[in-house]
Specification:
- This protein is α/β, with parallel strands linked by helices.
- The chain contains 11 helices and 9 strands.
- It has one domain: TIM Barrel.
- Strands 1-2-3-4-5-6-7-9 form an 8-stranded parallel barrel, surrounded by 8 helices.
- α6 links the parallel β5 and β6.
- α2 runs parallel beside α3, α3 packs across α5 and α7 runs parallel beside α10.
Length: 284
């Protein structure tokens, strides 16, 4: 199982060091991917611009949106061009994880109808594929001559059908190893029903905090980010891995569940979190 690390682009105190220095350390430590999380009505760093900054100071590590809320980007051709540009600049390291999201305020601010997000998303997947294939005269072409690796998030049967029709795999979001393992048979069944060979790539997400202030960082960061979510706010806080033993348990749990990659997202923007996580993940 690959182990990636999230950039702290949704941590309220994030600054340049939390992106640039963090990216350099993550690549040097051997993490497989740098991930970003998306929101609009929140003081986070925008995911694609964040990954462009990371691309400029790294050479090998994958650049993953986990996820980008695609329907908020109403100009789909421009979105495809932006993604292809980062893919070229990074020499093919982009992994585009996309989903529909559910926050009404994000959609209101975007001028996009929340009730139409599924239909918009289906159209976007077709449009982006067409742009990346060079069928619309919109460049640049993706670095490897075909679309970037594409993952689709969501937990409903329609999401799994989209994975099978359009993507290379599924990204699960939070929920823990048991929920991940419970969903994988349905993802694989949709893949098989669509006539796809092999198995879809699957990526899992978890939150972590390390160091003396880990519990405070988790409560502050996840409490703020999930303030809209009612009782789930505390569920997210309680589900984060607080300390080395909890982080190791999450890694072991997702490995046993069959994840291809686990991306651990931080509750602090201190680049020292990268080194602390590497000690647990890689024994150094």
């Amino acid at each position: 199982m690959d182990i990636g690390i999230g950039l702290p682009n949704t941590v309220l105190e994030v600054d340049r060091a939390g992106i640039v220095e963090w990216s350099r350390r993550a690549e040097a430590a051997g993490f497989s991917s740098l991930g970003t999380i998306d929101r609009l009505v929140y003081p986070n760093f925008e995911p694609l611009i964040t990954l462009a900054a990371a691309a400029a100071v790294t050479e090998r590590i994958r650049l993953l949106t986990d996820i980008l809320i695609a329907p908020l980007h109403s100009n789909t051709a421009l979105l495809a061009k932006q993604v292809a540009t980062i893919d070229c600049l990074s020499e093919g390291r982009v992994v585009l994880g996309v989903a529909v999201g559910s926050r009404p305020d994000d959609y209101t601010a975007s001028g996009v109808e929340l009730s139409r997000r599924g239909r918009i998303f289906d159209e976007q997947l077709q449009t982006m594929t067409s742009v990346w294939a060079g069928e619309r005269g919109i460049g640049p072409a993706p670095f490897r001559g075909s679309r970037p690796q594409l993952l689709i998030g969501g937990t409903q049967p329609r999401s799994f059908a989209r994975v099978a029709q359009h993507a290379d795999g599924w990204t699960s979001g939070g929920g823990g190893p048991q929920a991940f393992a419970a969903a994988m048979p349905a993802v694989r069944q949709a893949w098989s029903d669509a006539g796809r060979d092999g198995n879809p790539r699957n990526v899992a997400l978890a939150y972590f905090g390390l160091g003396d202030t880990a519990a405070t960082d988790i409560a502050h960061t996840l409490g703020s980010y999930y303030a809209f979510a009612g009782p789930y706010r505390q569920t997210a806080i309680d589900g984060a891995a607080d300390g080395p033993a909890a982080v190791q348990a999450v890694i072991d749990g997702y490995r046993a569940a069959g994840a291809d990659e686990l991306v651990l997202f931080p509750a602090s923007a201190d680049p020292a979190q990268v080194d602390r996580l590497a000690e647990i993940a890689f024994g150094r």
